[in-house]
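Below is a filled-in request sheet from our internal design queue. Each sheet records the structural input a requester submitted and the sequence that came back. We keep these sheets so that new team members can see what a complete request looks like end to end.

REQUESTER: design group, bay 2
PRIORITY: normal
MODE: inverse folding
CHAIN LENGTH: 306
BACKBONE (tokenized):
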């Protein structure tokens, strides 16, 4: 048996209106089409549902028995459709993302504020988690997308390049400034890093691994140095004068009110790709692209090094 919701609704409307003509008008189909639909139902049920005369339409005993089932089924389907529609509408009004604490604390507040001004009906929820957790949260559907410098692809994720950061060198600035403020200085060739003491991220951090590849070319990759897992702690130690740090330019936003100097490292300029990541094979949130555009504009304003 293969009865459709449309066929069930046709039976319900004919019984309610006691007229094929009025039921056809209400359902926006021809009377001939409605009659054919009812005959198909009767054929599948192997019984007659309606007695028709020139003056009236009445349910047969079998029709009365079937009507109760048809009404309940139609009500259940319509209720389920309404609830799913409400859930879908509610989901469209909430956008969620996972990012590292540095990105969540420095770039996303500004991006979220700009996005809210453009789309006040949409709530953006940010999960500030360690870098290692972001991919898992995307893969399990805890968040709509993730943000970060994912240097290695994952089988369960689709990566979209959002912004290309450059490696920059942060060093302590003069402590005579009355108001802490980051200052951009001239470009720094890798060879000019010379004997400057360096701080770093842990050896398992992909950003540090990239940095070490280029430090190896000037003989400084295997040295002992102070390391810090948190970018903001690392920058604070730079400001305090414990050494310099080589980081992607997305860290610039965290150093804007610090007494540090920052210069683009060149010869060569080294880029770090900043990605938006999504669960592979799943539909994207309808507002995700709009948020991505706002975040990209924010990163161009805050993280571009010229």
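RETURNED SEQUENCE:
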């Amino acid at each position: 048996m293969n009865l459709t919701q449309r066929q069930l609704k046709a039976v319900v409307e004919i019984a309610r209106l006691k007229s094929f003509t009025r039921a056809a008008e209400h359902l926006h189909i021809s009377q001939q089409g409605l009659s054919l639909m009812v005959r198909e139902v009767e054929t599948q049920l192997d019984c007659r549902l309606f007695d028709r005369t020139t003056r009236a339409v009445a349910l047969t005993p079998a029709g009365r028995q079937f009507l109760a089932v048809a009404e309940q089924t139609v009500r259940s389907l319509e209720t389920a459709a309404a609830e799913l529609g409400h859930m879908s509408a509610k989901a469209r009004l909430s956008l969620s993302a996972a990012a590292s604490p540095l990105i969540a604390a420095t770039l996303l507040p500004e991006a979220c504020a700009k996005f809210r001004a453009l789309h006040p009906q949409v709530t953006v929820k940010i999960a500030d988690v360690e870098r290692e957790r972001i991919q898992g949260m995307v893969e399990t559907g805890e968040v709509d997308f993730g943000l970060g410098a994912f240097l290695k692809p994952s089988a369960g994720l689709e990566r979209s390049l959002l912004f290309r950061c450059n490696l920059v060198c942060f060093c302590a600035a003069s402590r005579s400034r009355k108001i802490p403020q980051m200052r951009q200085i001239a470009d720094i060739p890798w060879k000019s890093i010379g004997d400057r003491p360096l701080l770093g991220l842990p050896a398992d951090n992909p950003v540090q691994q990239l940095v070490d590849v280029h430090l190896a070319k000037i003989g400084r990759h295997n040295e002992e140095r102070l390391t810090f897992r948190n970018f903001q702690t690392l920058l604070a130690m730079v400001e305090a004068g414990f050494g310099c740090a080589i980081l992607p330019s997305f860290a610039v936003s965290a150093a804007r009110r610090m007494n540090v100097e920052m210069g683009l490292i060149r010869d060569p300029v080294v880029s770090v790709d900043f990605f938006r990541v999504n669960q592979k094979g799943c539909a994207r949130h309808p507002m995700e692209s709009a948020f991505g555009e706002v975040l990209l504009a924010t990163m161009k304003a805050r993280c571009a090094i010229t």
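SHEET NOTES:
- The chain has a mean pLDDT of 88.
- The longest helix spans residues 61-92.
FILED BY: M.R.
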